[in-house]
Design goal:
The longest helix has 17 residues. The protein has two helices and two strands. Helix content is 49%, strand content 37%. By secondary structure, the protein is of the alpha+beta class. It has one domain. A two-stranded antiparallel sheet has the order 1-2.
């Protein structure tokens, strides 16, 4: 249970500090033979602060639990 607790603490801290995950994807707009037009699209997955705090608390509880 300790590795899971540590993982939850790390994910909770990341969720609180960064507020979510974001990435960039490449979309092709025009592909006409030798001519190709692409655009970069930034996408994100927001993590609510309450979810980050809940993961942090759950991780601490798991680490403090005696087994």
């Amino acid at each position: 249970m300790k590795p899971l607790g540590i993982l939850l603490i790390v994910l909770g801290l990341l969720g609180l500090v960064y507020g979510g995950l974001s990435w960039t994807s490449k979309d092709t707009i025009v592909d006409a033979g030798p001519i190709e037009i692409t655009t970069n699209k930034r996408e994100s997955l927001p993590i609510p602060p309450i979810a980050g705090a809940a993961a942090l608390v759950a991780g601490v509880v798991l680490l403090m639990k005696k087994s």
